[in-house]
Amino acid sequence: MHDPRVGDPVSELVDRTGMSDTDVEQVVRVMNALRDWHEAAERMSESSRRYMRLNETDMRALRYLIAAHNQKRQVTPGAITDYLGISSASTTKLLDRLEKGGHVRRGPHPTDRRALTVSVTEATRKDARESVGRQHARRFAVAAELSAADRDVVIAFLDSLSATEVVEAEGVTD
């Protein structure tokens, strides 16, 4: 429940000074809409992972490999390690799992005989395009329908909302 009139009736946490009931109600609707979007995004992400039979880290690795493919960049296991922020041992396990599942191929690096490259298989690239790619295209279309000014407002709002995490973390003391 996002309504501070219910969860914080005496304004100990949420300052509602100068806000009318209509203002508070509209803010509550914004918060509820954000919750609904978050839940929908989680369902879409879970659906894609189920469809492709992968976990979240596997999906992040595949998105990275697909982007690299689209940009005609070579990807090494070390680059995947850096991108995902996991250990090289975890990357090896991830690549073993993805290779066994037919999602990636490992091969020799074209210019460095000591290195390997990792690439996404065509079948997996197509599956990702049909699941995650189509969802992204629908979200892009919704954002594209906004005016430039409205997009700026949404960007500023979401940036400010994201920054609340940083403010919270900075205020934590031991």
From TrEMBL:
Q: Which domain of life is it from?
A: Bacteria
Protein name, entry field: MarR family transcriptional regulator
**Regions crossing the membrane:** none
The family database entries (PROSITE patterns) matched by this protein are listed as:
HTH_MARR_2
HTH marR-type domain sequence ranges: 20-163
